[in-house]
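debug: dumping io for the single-chain case to check the tokenizer round-trip. Nothing else runs in this session.
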Amino acid sequence: MKAIGFRTSLPLTEAESFIEFEKEQPIPRDRELLVRVAAISVNPVDFKLRQNSLRGKTQDQPKVIGWDAVGTVEAVGDKVVLFKKGDSVFYAGDITRDGSNQEYQLVEERIVGFAPKNSSAEAAAAMPLTALTAYEILIDRFRLTADKDKGKSILIIGGAGGVGSVAIQLAKEVLGLKVIATASRQNSVDWCKKMGADWVVDHKDLVNEVKKAGFETVDFIVDFVDLNQYWDSMVELIKPQGMIGSISDPVQPVNLRQLKGKSVSFHWELMFTRSMYQTPDINRQHEILNHIAQLMDAGTLRSTLNRTIRGFNVENLKEAHRLLESGKTIGKVVLTF
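debug: decoded output
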């Protein structure tokens, strides 16, 4: 079967930054599904791993990345209970295993959901990693519910990105929050409004922009960009007894003592935690993805797909990575097979 990977970490300008190769089609065991992949999307984790995971070393078998896919179950392991051959599924996968940049992929059934029925393959492929991340930080980490939190305020830093685009929708349509999102370019501002943000503020002057929107403080803040860059602003803007969450990778320590006076809690979110550590609640990702699909089918959530590249080949995958590396991508970039 066809796969695309890399033997060492190289810039996209290098011919072998991605290479196409043939590998044997795997056989599912235990609770594994063998999925024939129909479409994939690209996330920042993809280019970060391509740039860094094999820096200074070379391996014989190419490394296959990619953590978003939609496809059809072709075969199941002998302990599978949630799916059967022919089911349409979507998932983000497990960072410790081969990714979705291949024609067939093995994935553990407890981190897989039934794909939305009313969406195209490319629309569905745009959603798993970002939807899981946004859902987990708001609902599993912050434990927000519409019953107790409706009408409270949330600041979403990085509203036009993949995670921010879903977080805006979940915060607004599912939880009933007042949503402030950050964006600076006009097309990013327009996208955030399209996703449902009540206010869009410029991240370049965050504190003053939020206050101009009518908020001295906000109940919740999520950072999807750069914790170091916005830390002091978040400390100032968060309401006493509020919550701050982040998915970014700070290069410098942050001073959690600054949150003590307000009794503010801080939460990390990494979508891969459950699969990496095989946590007792790993099946939660199956449940979340099924809920996401239901919300999409009901029209409550819309796909964050913004660009489709047709054809699974090296050049197209490189183009998707170029777009992500530019830092100016809005929504999601999807490749169809």
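debug: round-trip ok. The mean pLDDT is 97.
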